[in-house]
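Module 6 notes. Inverse folding takes a fixed backbone as the condition and produces residue identities as the prediction. Think of it as a translation problem where the source language is geometry and the target language is the twenty amino acids. Below is one complete input and output pair. Work through it position by position during the lab.
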C-alpha cells in the first residue's frame, strides 16, 4: 500500500487512496511535472509477483494508452518502481455508474439510453483499434460532475486469466458473456453482451442473474433464461427491451455485430420507442430449421385433432357395418396400429394406391368443372337466383347451406359443421357481446351455399379485453401515472401529453386521462395523459399609480389581483420624491391576475451643477444663478479694493450639484478703507487742505 506523500517515478506525489478493485488499488496523485492531478492504478501484490501476468498487464495497458476518445479515460503513463507496477490515468471527478444506480435505484429511460450510447461510443473507438475491454460493468464506468460518461480499466481485464472464476471476479461475473464464463474465445461482441447486462441493470435496478456463488451465476449466463426487463419495469419501451435481448443473446452471432449497429438502434429507440424495429438475425446451419408462428402451431393442432376425429368416425362406421375399417376400399388411411414388421412392399403398394385414388379424384373434379362450365355456357345451369335453380343447387350433394354458429362453442360448431361436410378454422379475439369460449364471428353467413369441405373461418371470444382506467391518477407525476396505467394492463400509453388549466392541480401534475379516468376501454386503446399547466388566467385591468406612494401603489395593484414588478427610482421636477412617476404597462391595460406591473418612484428634482460666478458683479451673478433655477441671497466680506463690489465666492460652492430651487449665497467684496496719515507735528494752517470730493476737478 502506498503512503501519502510518497513519490512514484520522482514525479507523482500520492495524495490519498480513492478506490480499490479485485486486482488493483487506485490513488489520487499530483503530477509535479505537468502540475495536474491524476489517478494512479497500482497492481496488487499477488498479481505483481506473476511475471507472465505483469507482462500482459503492461502490454495491454500500453496498447490502451493509444486510445483517445471523449468516452474513454485517458492513460498517460505506465511504470514500475521497486516492484510496484502502476498506470497513470486521467482523474475523473465523479462517481461510478454502479454507485449512481445504487443512489437512484433505477435510471430514467432516456438517461439510461444516453449513458449506454456514450459507453457504446467508447467501445466503438476501442474496437476499431482491435482492443476488447472484457470487463464492461457499472463499476468500470465513470460519470463526471458534468455528466460525461467515461469507460475505464481498458486492458486490465484482458490481462486477467479467463480460465478461472474466482472470488475476485464476484463483481464481474454478473456481467460476463457466456463465452467468457466457458473460458472460450472473446471478441467485441463479448463487450456488447456486458453492456446489454449493464443497460438491463440501469433500467430495472437489478442484474438478470443472481446465485449463491460465482460459478452458479456463470452457469446461468451459459444456460439460464433471462427475465425480460419489462416484467420488472413495464414502462420500458418494446424497442429498448428488444435491444437488450439482442445484446444478451447466448450465441455471439445473434448479437449486434458491432457497437456502431448498437448505437444506431439506441438512437432509433429515442425517436421511435414503441416501434418493433430491432432485427434479430436467426442462426443458420447446414440443414435449415423451419420456424413456426403461433398461427402455424394452432393450425397443426386443429388439423391433428380433425384427423383423429375422422379416423375415429370411420372406425365407428366400419364397426356398425360389421367389417374392419381396413376392408373399406374407399378408405384413404391405414390403421395406425399396423404391425411395425409389415412388409415394406405392402406399404409401397398402399402408398401407390393412395396416389392413384388422388389422381382419379383430381381427374373427376376436372371433368366435373368442365361439364359445369359447358352447361352454364349452354344456359342449362343458371346461378342467377330463380327459385328453381336455387332449389337445384341446394339439393346438390357437393354443396352445403351454411348454418348459424354464433354463440356456439368451437366443439359444438365443429360437430354441426362436420354433418354438413364443412370444416372449422378458429382464431381468437376479444368480444364484448359473447362470453369467453363462444363464437362471435363467422365469415360465411347463415343461409349461404358453399362447397362441401370448405373451411369456415370463425372467431372465438376470449372475453372482454376492456380494462378500467384507474381513477386515482389525478395529482400524480407523469411518470408515476404511466407506471400505474402499465401496471393496470394498458399497453398503448401515449408518449405525448396534453395540457389544461387547473385551479386545484399543481403545474406539471396529471389532471386526468383521455379517455376519462374510471371508464372501461380496450387494453390496447391509446391513452393520453392530461397535465396541468396551472390556474386559468383571470383578466383584470391595470390601475393608475401616478403620484401614489410606493406602499399605496403596491396595495392598489394587489386589489386588482396584480403584483409589483421591478421598482426603480429617478429624478423628477414635477413629482415629489417618493411618489410614482410612471408605470409599465400603463393604466387601463388588460392583464391576467397574477401578472406583474413595474413602476418608477421619484427622487425629487434633479440636481444641477452650481456655475462659477466669482469675479462677476452682483447683478450678473444673480441673473446667471436664477437662470439655472437657483434662488439667490447676498452676503459681503472685506476684500481687496480691486474686488470691491465683485463676487468673491458662493455657498454652496461652484461645481457642486444642487437641486433646483436651492438658495445659493453670493458673497460680495467690500474693499478696504484708506489708512490715516501719521505726522510728528500738526500741520500749519497754511499747509491744511481739503481733499476734493470724489469726481470733482482739482
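Target side of the pair, the amino acids:
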Amino acid at each position: 500500500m502506498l503512503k501519502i506523500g510518497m513519490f512514484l517515478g520522482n514525479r507523482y506525489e500520492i495524495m490519498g487512496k480513492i478506490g480499490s478493485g479485485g486486482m488493483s488499488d487506485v490513488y489520487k496523485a499530483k503530477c509535479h511535472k505537468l502540475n495536474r492531478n491524476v489517478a494512479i492504478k497500482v497492481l496488487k501484490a499477488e498479481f505483481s509477483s506473476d511475471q507472465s501476468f505483469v507482462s500482459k498487464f503492461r502490454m495491454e495497458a500500453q496498447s490502451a494508452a493509444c486510445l483517445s476518445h471523449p468516452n474513454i479515460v485517458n492513460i498517460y503513463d505506465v511504470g514500475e518502481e521497486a516492484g510496484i507496477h502502476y498506470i497513470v490515468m486521467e482523474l475523473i471527478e465523479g462517481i461510478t455508474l454502479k454507485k449512481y444506480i445504487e443512489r437512484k435505484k433505477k435510471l430514467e429511460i432516456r438517461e439510461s439510453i444516453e449513458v449506454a450510447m456514450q459507453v457504446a461510443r467508447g467501445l466503438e473507438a476501442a474496437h476499431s483499434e482491435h482492443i476488447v475491454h472484457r470487463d464492461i460493468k457499472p463499476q468500470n464506468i465513470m460519470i463526471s460532475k458534468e455528466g460525461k460518461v467515461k469507460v475505464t480499466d481498458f486492458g486490465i481485464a484482458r490481462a486477467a486469466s479467463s480460465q478461472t472464476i474466482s472470488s475476485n471476479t464476484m463483481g464481474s461475473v454478473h456481467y460476463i458473456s457466456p463465452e467468457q464464463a466457458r473460458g472460450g474465445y472473446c471478441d467485441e461482441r463479448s463487450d456488447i453482451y456486458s453492456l446489454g447486462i449493464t443497460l438491463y441493470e440501469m433500467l430495472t435496478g437489478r442484474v438478470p442473474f443472481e446465485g449463491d456463488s460465482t460459478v452458479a451465476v456463470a452457469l446461468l449466463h451459459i444456460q439460464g433464461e433471462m427475465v425480460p426487463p419489462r416484467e420488472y419495469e413495464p414502462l420500458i419501451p418494446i424497442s429498448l427491451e428488444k435491444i437488450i435481448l439482442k445484446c444478451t443473446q447466448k450465441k455471439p452471432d445473434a448479437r449486434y455485430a458491432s457497437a456502431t449497429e448498437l448505437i444506431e438502434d439506441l438512437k432509433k429507440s429515442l425517436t421511435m420507442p414503441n416501434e418493433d424495429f430491432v432485427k434479430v438475425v436467426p442462426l443458420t446451419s447446414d440443414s435449415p430449421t423451419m420456424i413456426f408462428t403461433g398461427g402455424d402451431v394452432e393450425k397443426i393442432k386443429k388439423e391433428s385433432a380433425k384427423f383423429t376425429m375422422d379416423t375415429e368416425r370411420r372406425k365407428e362406421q366400419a364397426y356398425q357395418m360389421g367389417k374392419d375399417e381396413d376392408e373399406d376400399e374407399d378408405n384413404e388411411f391405414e390403421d395406425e396400429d399396423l404391425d411395425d414388421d409389415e412388409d415394406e412392399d405392402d406399404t409401397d403398394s398402399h402408398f401407390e394406391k393412395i396416389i392413384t385414388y388422388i389422381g382419379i379424384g383430381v381427374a373427376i373434379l376436372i371433368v366435373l368443372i368442365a361439364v359445369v362450365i359447358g352447361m352454364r355456357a349452354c344456359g342449362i345451369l343458371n346461378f342467377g337466383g330463380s327459385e328453381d335453380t336455387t332449389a337445384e343447387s341446394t339439393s346438390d350433394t357437393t354443396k352445403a347451406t351454411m348454418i348459424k354458429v354464433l354463440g356456439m362453442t368451437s366443439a359444438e360448431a365443429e360437430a354441426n359443421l362436420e354433418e354438413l361436410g364443412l370444416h372449422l378454422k378458429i382464431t381468437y379475439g376479444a368480444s364484448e357481446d359473447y362470453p369467453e369460449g363462444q363464437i362471435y364471428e363467422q365469415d360465411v353467413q347463415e343461409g349461404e351455399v358453399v362447397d362441401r369441405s370448405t373451411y369456415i373461418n370463425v372467431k372465438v371470444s376470449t372475453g372482454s379485453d376492456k380494462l378500467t382506467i384507474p381513477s386515482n391518477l389525478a395529482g400524480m407525476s407523469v411518470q408515476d401515472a404511466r407506471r400505474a396505467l402499465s401496471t393496470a394492463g394498458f399497453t398503448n400509453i401515449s408518449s405525448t401529453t396534453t395540457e389544461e388549466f387547473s385551479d386545484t392541480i399543481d403545474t406539471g401534475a396529471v389532471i386526468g386521462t383521455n379517455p376519462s379516468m374510471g371508464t372501461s376501454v380496450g387494453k390496447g386503446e391509446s391513452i393520453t395523459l392530461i397535465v396541468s399547466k396551472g390556474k386559468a388566467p383571470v383578466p383584470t385591468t391595470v390601475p393608475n399609480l401616478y403620484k401614489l406612494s410606493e406602499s399605496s401603489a403596491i396595495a392598489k395593484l394587489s386589489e386588482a389581483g396584480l403584483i409589483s414588478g421591478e421598482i426603480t427610482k429617478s429624478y423628477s421636477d414635477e413629482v415629489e420624491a417618493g411618489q410614482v412617476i410612471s408605470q409599465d404597462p400603463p393604466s387601463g391595460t388588460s392583464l391576467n391576475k397574477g401578472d406583474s406591473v413595474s413602476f418608477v418612484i421619484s427622487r425629487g428634482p434633479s440636481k444641477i451643477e452650481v456655475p462659477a460666478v466669482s469675479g462677476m458683479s452682483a447683478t450678473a451673478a444673480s441673473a446667471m444663478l436664477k437662470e439655472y433655477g437657483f434662488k439667490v441671497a447676498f452676503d459681503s466680506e472685506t476684500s481687496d479694493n480691486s474686488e470691491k463690489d465683485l463676487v468673491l465666492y458662493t455657498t454652496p460652492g461652484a461645481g457642486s450639484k444642487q437641486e433646483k430651487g436651492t438658495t445659493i449665497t453670493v458673497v460680495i467684496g467690500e474693499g478696504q478703507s484708506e489708512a490715516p496719515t501719521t505726522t510728528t507735528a500738526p500741520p500749519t494752517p497754511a499747509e491744511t487742505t481739503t481733499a476734493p470730493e470724489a469726481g470733482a476737478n482739482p
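Reference fact for the lab report: The CA atoms of residues 371 and 377 lie 10 Å apart.
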